Structures are given as C-alpha cells and as structure tokens.
TrEMBL record:
Name of this protein: Haloacid dehalogenase
Alphabetical list of InterPro entries matching this protein: HAD-like_sf, HAD-SF_hydro_IA, HAD_sf
Superkingdom to which the source organism belongs: Bacteria
Entries under Pfam families matching the protein: Hydrolase (PF00702)
Amino acid sequence: MSTSLTQLRGLVHDHDLRAVVSDLDGVLRRFDPSLWGELDAVAEVPDGTVYEAVLGHPFLDEVVRGRGTHRQWREQAASALVAAGSTPEGADAVIRGWLSSPARIDREVLDELESLRGAGIPVFILTNGTDRVPEELDDLGITPFLGPGRRFLLNTADLGAAKPDREAYALAHARIEHELGEDLRAEQVAFLDDSPRHVRGAAAYGWHAVLHHTE
C-alpha cells in the first residue's frame, strides 16, 4: 500500500472523522502519461503542444466551474492546435484520440476507499470535473461506487467553484453535510489529492489533507 493511503487510514483510525473525500484524476482514475507525446506526433507539432492546448487551455478553468461545456473546450483546444501549427485535420484527429484514450481505475485506491466505506466512513469523490464526468465514470464501470443518484460525486462543474479555491471546499463540505444529514466540523473530513495546491487549499479550509503519490 502506498504511504499516502497508509496515512489516510491512520487519520481515520486516530481522529473522529465522519467523511473521506478523494480526488479523481491522478488518484482514483489514471491515464497513460505517454498519450500526450503520441498526440504531438499525430498533430506534427513540438513536444508539449497538445498538452498545453488541451489541459493548459484557459477555458478549462471556466468548464470546471460550470461556466462552459466539454464540447466548447474541445472546440477551443482544436483551434489552439491549429494556431500552434497543426492542420485542421490533424487537430480533429488529436481531439478524437484524446477522447478515446483509455483510462483505468487504480485498484489499490478503490479497494482502500471501499474498505473505509465498509467500515462505516462515507467516501466522496471531489473532482475538478466537466459536464462529461458522469458519462466517463459510467464508461469506467464505477457508477455504483458513486451511490444512488451519484450522491457521493462532488463535481465542481455542478458546485460552481473549483479546487484550490476555498469556495470549492466550502460548497463540497455543505454537500457532504446535506447528504449525511448532519453538521460536520472541517476537521472531521479527510482529503486525498495528488495536487500540492489542492492539498494546501483543503488544509487551509480545515480538512485533514493528504498528498497522494504512487510508489
């Protein structure tokens, strides 16, 4: 087990925790890191160009706050690729390749989260996500883990604020309280994320925050 999962388990054991919150991408859901280099080759652009056009596009900040759609993001990413030297056909091929890129669930993380839930600790997923997240998680086959009506999914596109903004943690905390039907102190929640910025934001809000990393 990774040291971060061991640390999370220790927090649950040693504190009066009433909920655990995990990030999605980079923690529970993982992608092949070689994807971006392969797509650079498809577009015939310098290394790092596709990553910057897609995940580095400023419009993504709007999408994960519910102020834009995944479709609009794709269109803007394709335009950015053309501006960076790709042909329109190459840009379209890149977007299709990105959308069809396989993801996998980190079984060690899922097993630990399911174990915590089985021990009576509610487990939520907080993701800087888009309007496509429910569809993507359906494709991965983990919708049952999200509970009836996806009640354990905290998607920032629905919340209207994104990590590491303090408002995102406050809105997520309020949703957790609503789902559990009780008030919680911030220190009764543990948080797992692979982003140092997001971990710092959660800790500043008052959650017990653990930086996740793979061994």
